[in-house]
Amino acid sequence: xxxxxxxxxxxxxxxxxxxxxxxxxxxxxxxxxxxxxxxxxxxxxxxxxxxxxxxxxxxxxxxxxxxxxxxxxxxxxxxxxxxxxxxxxxxxxxxxxxxxxxxxxxxxxxxxxxxxxxxxxxxxxxxxxxxxxxxxxxxxxxxxxxxxxxxxxxxxxxxxxx
Length: 162
Hints:
Layout lengths: L1 H24 L1 H35 L5 H18 L3 H11 L1 H21 L42
Helix pairs in contact: 1-2, 2-3, 2-4, 3-4, 3-5
């Protein structure tokens, strides 16, 4: 339902903003702003993406939790898609996703919500922290084999021809 609303409301918001801004400053300045935000946004995505990639590599090398850096990378990717989409609303939203402080706040809110769901037992199909019990048998490969499967009773395999 939320996705459907986004696909309906976002274009309506963009059309309204295009009409309002175009009425205030004219067609060509409006189009120039849209193109400028795409170019500047691409540069910002590249710069922020490199920084997050460097932070991700450092956290993995130092054996630290990389989840915030992974989430930041996903938000930067989403910001890039928003900035390449023509429109003022999507550009503003994309620029917000490029600000490290905003990404950190969003990550903390998502993390907090996931922890609440886990504590209430509503994992929603995510990872579970239950213990898995597995039966196993220890086999000593150096011990002599006895019985019909021992080496003295084994002929050539049915899978090979000698």
